[in-house]
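Batch manifest, entry 17 of 40.
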Amino acid sequence: MHGNLRARVFDRNATVFRAAVIGWSRQVRRGTADWSAGARGRRAPPWDSGRVIVGVGIDVVDIARFERALERTPGLRGRLFTEVERDLAGRSLAARFAAKEALAKALGAPRGLLWTDAEIGRAGDGRPTLSVTGTVAAAAAERGVTRWHVSLSHDGGIATAIVVAETG
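Output type: structure tokens
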């Protein structure tokens, strides 16, 4: 008996869902769908925002290993970081390097990018920012990237970064 009841509940839920989808798709086809905020809790459809994610990159860096590499190779700071970034603490540099690696991945890892053509800064509210010039700006423009989203973290000896490249 319980199995039969479950089947009926499932059938009813599936029917209600199908009716909602059919009704919604009719509204969309007719152009009568109400996407304004507050209309039954709906927001504008994502395709109306004009923004499209072009790429996503993520990277992790072992902080202790990265700090040892910086000590072992003094010229590495100059090759990887802008003047503004070079004097930061090791864990901050590791997170910024992870962000630069993630940036390259978000762009599809094109050849010829210079690490110093990307600078990870900080907005007034503490959020990380990404400024690009030269080779990185050219690669971003080629892909239509107009906006960046960056997230940095360091915990447990690991620095992580995520970069999202967006158009619009």
